[in-house]
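Quick one - inputs below.
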Amino acid sequence: MTFPESNDRRKKIGQAVMFGVSKGISYGIVALLFLILFFIIKQGIGVISWEFLTAMPTDGMTKGGIYPAIIGTLYLVGGSMLFAFPVGVMAGIYVNEYAVSGPMKRFINMMTNNLAGVPSIIFGLFGMALFVNQMGFGASILAGSLTLGLLALPIVIRTTEESLKSVDDTFRQASYALGGSKLYTIRKVVLPIALPNILTGLILAVGRVSGETAPILFTVAAYFLPRLPNSIMDQCMALPYHLYVISTSGTQIEASRPIAYGTAFVLVAIVLIVNILAALLRNYFGKKVKMN
Amino acid sequence: MSNKIETIDVNLHYGDFHALKDISLGIPENSVTALIGPSGCGKSTYLRLFNRMNDLIPETRITGKVLLDGENIYKIKATKIDALRRNVGMVFQKPNPFPKSIFENVAYGLRVNGITDKSFIEGQVEKTLHQAALWDEVKDKLKKSAFELSGGQQQRLCIARALAIEPSIILMDEPASALDPISTGKIEDLIFELKSEFTIVIVTHNMQQAGRVSDYTGFFYLGSLIEFGKTRKIFTNPSKQETENYISGRFG
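Output:
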């Protein structure tokens, strides 16, 4: 049998075009990312100083530092994780280890996915309705943390579930075969193996939460509060919201431009550091649990 | 020699799949019994009857009797299942030590069953590692992670882990199939050593291995027990044609 040579040529050209296009697109995306980073670093780095990181904002937020916003963001991230991590991990354990396969489990999974897709402003409104008004927390770190925690919940649940799913079943069986109960097995065998991946999920959630503006808009964020919060019932400033107000509704938007870039720089730096930390932590625990 | 385990007319279904068909068989005490047969023939499923591991799989139905020391283990109370599993140790196909130190791996079965006496645990760990012929290789690194051991050492550690709670039966599900020939040899020597104290049931794909280590052999095919008897007889003069075909390598 003879095959037409033209067909071989056509295949070659088709491949070259297809790969060329997808290669160009992926390089373009990387370039775009670097462009954004470069832009923020270039505009922001000049503003960064010890004073900028540790001083209160002054002169209608055109001078001084962003210390309360940094601290506020740290409080909110910490508070939201304090809520989302235990709740999310427990939900993930239930879904993967206890829930019986069937319509109910599929429904839970579908709802978790849907929750992840809810726009963050909706979380903000919901948080205001439930935590601020209904439960009477007022605009406070508590209300803001809980709202951000809800936003982070699906991420923690899904990564926990996926991490547990990847634990080989013979580990569980080996524990049961020694007379181990399900709970003991999960605590002593399954969770330690899954931990590196669960932690990665947690830190990715931190990255997500630290940059959110909409959920804190009505629940905690203070427009201008040049002092540190006194308690979890206090309002606080936060980096993304600070950036938003001095870019859109400050008294002197032009004058506070450098501060805005500096804030953006700090925010991006925090998210970047958190992501690098995630990678390191994953490697560290991954090595500890590695199978040969 | 009396039968340690006996199954009478056992049938097992996974959903619609009839995995074990009318299996009646007695496994003698303090001996090694090999279960052989092609993949999917039911030999692993049969092995997992004895510590009720099949219970974990949804939609499993079991009929017939599984007697262990004369007691039907499918008629015991749910609270007695842990005690059953303490009495029936299990070693798996792939070495699967827990993500803990070598010491803690062996101590796991003691701790999970509520033993806290530190010196007792230490003594038991040392004794069991000796039994599993692993002590000399690990005595200086008991605190090190079990994952630092070689595959063969990990498997002997898993055997030690099973022995630590002093079962009377050990189930082995292709314990050497993931190991190199030298490690396999060590496991086989160990099986030979252990049979004076334990009743061992081993599932294996490796015909030579069954011939080397076992006293009795059962040949499974398509969920049925085709033939059971002394290993020497099964391997030299089987009474069924299917057995002879399988052992001579004509299928499977």
